[in-house]
Amino acid sequence: MKPVTLSDIAERLNISITTVSKALKDYPDVSPKTKALVKELALTLNYRPNSFAVNLRTKESKTIGLIIPVIVHHFFSSVIKGIISQAEKKGYLVIILQSNESYELEKKQIDLLINQRVDGIIISLANDTVDFKHLNDVISLDKPLIMFDKIAKLVKCSKVIINDRQAAYDATQHLINTGCKRIAHFRGSLLPQNSIDRFLGYKKALVDNGIPYDPNLVYICECDDKSFEEGKKNAIKLLEDHDDVDGIFINTDLVAIGAIAAFNDLGVKIPETISIVGFSNWFMSSVISPTLTTVDQPGFEMGKEAFKQLFKEIRQRKNNLPVTYEEIVLKTSLVKRESTKTELTNRV
Question: Which is it for the CA torsion 200, 171, 182, 228, positive or negative?
Answer without folding.
Answer: negative
